[in-house]
Structures are given as C-alpha cells and as structure tokens.
Amino acid sequence: MALSDIDETQAPLLDHLIELRTRLVRAVAALAVAFAVCFYFADQILAFLAKPLTDAFPAGEGKLIYTKLYEVFFVELRVSLFAAFCVSFPIIANQLWAFIAPGLYAKEKRAFLPFLFATPVLFGAGASLAYFVVMPTAFRWFLGFEGTAGGLDIEALPAAGDYLSLVMQFILAFGISFLLPVLLLLLNRAGIVSRQQLAGVRRYVIVGVVAVAAIVTPPDPGSQLILALPLYILFEGSLLLMRIGEKRRAKEDAAEDARADKTPTE
C-alpha cells in the first residue's frame, strides 16, 4: 500500500482543534458503547476473571465475599470499564492514527505503523501470560497459607473488590511490561539510544528487569520470575530487531549512494 507524503494543506489551528474534537468524540463514543455492552455482560466477565481463583480452590470451596453493600456494584462497573477499554482500544488507536498521520512523511508513517499494530499484540500476549500462567500459579501459592496457627483456622475469604484490584494489577503489569520492545525500538528510531549503548548496559538492564518484576507483581517469587524472564527475552529480541534494522538501512543507504553515483552530472 502506497503511503503519500505529508499533506500539503496548511490547515489553520482551528481546523486542527475541530479535527481533534471529532476524533475524541468518536473515541469516547466507542468507549461508551463498549462499556454499555460490557456492563450488560458484567457477570460473565467477572466470572471469567474469577476462573483462575476458582480453579485454585479445591472443587466447590471457592468464594468471593463483599463487606460493603455497594461493593459488588462498583466491582461490576470497574470490570465493565476495564473490558470496554480493551475492546475499544483498536478504534481509539485508529482515531489517534487518523489524527497524527496527515502530519507525518511517508517514511515516518511506514516506521510508525508496525508499532501501532505491535502494541495491542504485545499487550495481549502479556495479559494472556498473566491470566493463563501467572495468576493460577500465584493463587495456588497464596492459598497454600491456609491452615491453622495457634489453634485458630486460617481461611482465605477474598473480597470481590480486592480480588479485582489484584487481577487488574496482574494484567496491566504484564501487559504494559511486554511493551518494552515498542519503547526501545521507538527510542532507537528517534536516535535517543543506540543498539551498542543498550548492549553495553546489559548487566544493569538485568538488575532493572528484576527490580521492575519485584515492584509490579505481588510478592511471590514465582510471579516475579515469570515476568522477569520474558522481559529479558524481549530486551534481547529488541536488540536483534535493531541489528536487523541497521543492516537493512545500511543496504538502503548503499543502494541510494550507488544510484547517486550513476546519475550523470551536468
């Protein structure tokens, strides 16, 4: 698909503000429609999010409690808003792209488009890892503290609001952390950091990855390890993509120089 260069129209500031308002209205409308649909299916979405905890309990023993009369209602509101943002993100991203694309050159559009597509894919990969692998492992570890102490029974009775906060923490932490390649490659494309600089601080990156995993995940070693390992692999993958990009750009520059040498001078 051919991408045209920057639009030649010199629209006044007011036109840009009107365009921005239109894009924002469409994005908010998409979020509102998605929220209405998700709120209708809030019970099913909450059941889906609660499944890792249900599976971690012995069969038939799992339960969520609420200590405030309005707690479950607000839990369903938060669940609906969270799900609505995930569902409507492609439309929101499309409106953002439609607003900024006319101000980009064709080369800049081609450079930016892969990041636009990679962002939801990587976020989804991180969220899936959290939901299908990390949360079941972490919840079984947490429930392992049930038992007796000093003759008293210790029983897990998680509150619905607290559980939802924990699930969102898992999903957002893993989803956002998996955007590390997007951040590094954008910084590299912008000339802020080079592959050599990143490779030179590899040992500090390892320490940083472990620290981030310890901060954004609950305090169980399994979750921290499951996040730290993919983050480091993504870092190394980013360096590999940078190397491939450098080779491709070097070939393109060499081809342009060769064409320039063949061009007859007057």
Could you characterize the architecture of this molecule?
The protein is an all-alpha fold. Helices cover 76% and strands 2% of the residues. The chain is built from nine helices and two strands. A two-stranded antiparallel ribbon has the order 1-2. A hairpin with a 2-residue loop joins strand 1 and strand 2. The chain is flat. The relative contact order is 0.09. The mean pLDDT is 84.
In short:
The chain has 266 residues and is mostly helical.
How are strands sequenced across the largest beta sheet?
Answer: 1-2
Gyration radius, in Å: 24 Å
- Unreliable stretches covering 5 or more consecutive residues: none
Helix percent reads over 70%
Strand tally:
2
Q: What composes the largest sheet?
A: 2 strands, antiparallel
Q: Calculate the mean pLDDT score and round it.
A: 84
- Terminal residue distance: 35 Å
Shape: flat
Class inferred from helices and paired strands: mainly alpha
- Strand share of the residues? under 5%
Total count of helical runs of at least 4 residues: 9
What letter string, H or E per element, gives the SSE order? HHHHEEHHHHH
Which key features would you list for this structure?
266 residues, mainly alpha, two-stranded antiparallel ribbon, flat
Q: Layout of SSEs?
A:
Blueprint lengths: L12 H28 L1 H15 L14 H30 L5 H38 L3 E3 L2 E3 L5 H18 L2 H10 L5 H6 L1 H15 L4 H42 L4
Antiparallel strand pairs: 1-2
